């Protein structure tokens, strides 16, 4: 399986987070993403948060330049 990543720069936030995380396994990436979401963004570790984060994973490695922010439905 190729390396996977999640990039906070893709999602607008008041803190303009610039963290991108990558890992060789989905489980490792999910654990790191949940820890970041809880510690930095104030989310609660729930099964729903884990499901949402997993849908945001991309194959490969994060780009050096910040990607365009996606609009998040309210």
TrEMBL record:
<protein>
    <recommendedName>
        <fullName>DUF1059 domain-containing protein</fullName>
    </recommendedName>
</protein>
<dbReference type="InterPro" id="IPR009409">
    <property type="entry name" value="DUF1059"/>
</dbReference>
<dbReference type="Pfam" id="PF06348">
    <property type="entry name" value="DUF1059"/>
</dbReference>
């Amino acid at each position: 399986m190729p390396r996977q990543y999640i990039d906070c720069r893709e999602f607008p936030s008041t803190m303009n987070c610039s963290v991108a995380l990558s890992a060789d396994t989905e489980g490792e990436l999910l654990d790191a993403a949940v820890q970041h979401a809880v510690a930095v963004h104030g989310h609660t570790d729930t099964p729903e948060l884990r499901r949402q984060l997993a849908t945001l994973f991309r194959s490969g490695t994060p780009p050096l330049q910040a990607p365009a922010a996606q609009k998040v439905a309210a």
